[in-house]
Amino acid sequence: PADTQSMPSPGAGTGLEGSISLHGISGGPVKQGVPDSKPLANTTFVVKKGDLTITCFTTDDQGRFRISLPSGHYTVSKKDWNSRVGFYGPFPIDITAGQVKKVQWNCDTGMQ
Question: 96, 82 in Cβ contact below 8 A?
Answer without folding.
Answer: no
